[in-house]
Amino acid sequence: MPELPEVEVVRRGLEAHILGATIESVQVLHPRAVRRHEPGPRDLALQLTGQHITAAERRGKYMWLVLEPGDIALVVHLGMSGQMLVQPPTVPQEKHLRIRAVLDNGAELRFVDQRTFGGWALAPLLDVDGARVPLPVAHIARDPMDPRFDPDAVVKVLRGKHTEIKRALLDQTVVSGIGNIYADEALWRAKIHGNRLTDSLSGPKLKSVLEAAREVMGEALDQGGTSFDALYVNVNGESGYFERSLNVYGQENLPCRRCGAPIRREKFMNRSSYSCPKCQPRPRAGR
After folding, report:
1. 10-residue block means of pLDDT along the chain (287 residues)?
2. Which terminus of the chain has fewer CB atoms gathered within 10 Å of its CB, N or C?
């Protein structure tokens, strides 16, 4: 699933190519792509037609387009394989095209989703914590790249919990935008094993993890995000290159770039965690 850097790359592309455009028509080609919009495909198409796009926003992994006059948003769920492509109308239809919106600037906004886990939905914008966010995003915390992110407040929340640090990093109500890839990378940089309990870590240690997450996601953003296959692309259909810079994620048995020990893979929440056995020792039993 795309994490903060990948979603931000897409958001920036949309901001550059469709801001100020008006939606002339919408065609929903697969009903699952609008299942989160309860009134259904026809209602979504009717409501979007004639709407003026004024902003492309994001919080964590969640993205939305603000529609004039600014009290409603088109919330975009990328899911596992969703793509937001800006294409000339002469480009042939993609195999897994789910929604097509024709814009008055001569382009088409296309939602392509092979696995159909993503989709579009309209939602009202609410004032939450000094920001305007769609209703489905109201419970999502700020992310480490948000200018108003407060690491001290997040550290306080983390120290008040009794849970594994990696599990806490993936909790989008505590800190958003961090998924499995960047959690592993941040913990490697901070030299902390993901099973360490949050209330056993000092404030400075927890702050170092949050800073590491901000740094690694910023570096990933500079390289267009992390692409392991053709499913994650930007609005022009291009892949990111941060996979080449990953230190631990997906590097099982390869030498740690810091100490040379072979990277280990462990089961974690129906997925995998990667860490260095020397730089990130497991917490001792009973702690």
Report:
1. 86 95 98 97 98 97 95 94 93 96 97 95 95 96 96 98 97 96 96 98 98 94 64 59 77 97 95 96 78
2. C
Given 2, 5, 134, 151, the catalytic residue = 2
Q: Does domain 151-275 have CATH number 1.10.8.50?
A: yes
Note if 61 is an active site residue. Answer: yes
User: Domain ranges in the chain?
Assistant: 4-137, 151-275
Class of domain 4-137: alpha beta
- Tell me the C-alpha distance between 46 and 56, whole Å: 21
Residue in this structure with the two tokens 């419970």, named with its chain if needed: 139
Q: Do domains 4-137 and 151-275 have the same CATH topology?
A: no
Structural contact between residues 120 and 74, judged by C-beta atoms closer than 8 angstroms? yes
One of 61, 100, 142, 214 is an active-site residue; which one? 61
To the query of whether residue 271 is one of the catalytic residues in this protein, the response is: yes
* Cα gap 154→157, rounded to integer Å: 5
Catalytic residue among 244, 267, 271, 287: 271
Q: Which of 3, 6, 57, 108 is catalytic?
A: 3
Q: What is the 3-state secondary structure (H, E, C) of 16-65?
A: HHHCCCEEEEEEECCHHHHCCCCCCHHHHHHHHCCCEEEEEEEECCEEEE
The one-letter amino acid code at 102 reads V
Burial class (CB in 10 A: 0-12, 13-18, 19+), 55: middle
